[in-house]
Amino acid sequence: VCARSGEFIDVPVVSGAILVNIADLMQRWTADRFISVCHRVLLPPEGDSCTRQSLAFFVHPDDEALISCCDGSSKYPPIT
């Protein structure tokens, strides 16, 4: 993931863990409880025995759907 400094930081493999990268819509829905981050995927080093599985799931709400903070706050104004 990309740190605020602009430097990319490796995310360690943790057995049994799930890593979720969210985008701006989820950040808005959660009123910044979860933060959207810039990320990249690199090939593992030669001979690395760790494996990871990747699953991409994208959400695009209906154009008329009202998007507002789930906690009822006014952190972000509702948008469509």
Give a verbal description of the structure.
It comes from Nothobranchius rachovii. It holds the Pfam family 2OG-FeII_Oxy. Residues 4-61 form the Isopenicillin N synthase-like Fe(2+) 2OG dioxygenase domain. This is Isopenicillin N synthase-like Fe(2+) 2OG dioxygenase domain-containing protein. With 80 residues, the protein is mostly loops. It has one domain (1-43, 58-80). 8% of the residues lie in helices and 0% in strands. It has one helix at residues 24-29. The longest helix is centred in the N-terminal third of the chain and has 6 residues, at 24-29. The radius of gyration is 16 Å and the shape is elongated. The model has no long low-confidence stretch (mean pLDDT 88).
Brief account:
The chain is low in regular secondary structure and 80 residues long. It is built from one helix and no strands. It comes from Nothobranchius rachovii.
Can you give keywords for this protein?
80 residues; 1 helix; 8% helix; elongated
Note the beta-strand portion.
under 5%
How would you spell out the order of helices and strands?
H
Overall tally of domains: 1
For the secondary structure, the number of strands is: 0
The overall pLDDT, averaged over residues, is 88
Radius of gyration: 16 Å
Question: Tell me, what's the shape?
Answer: elongated
Q: How many DSSP helices?
A: 1
Low-confidence runs of at least 5 consecutive residues: none
Largest beta-sheet characterization: none
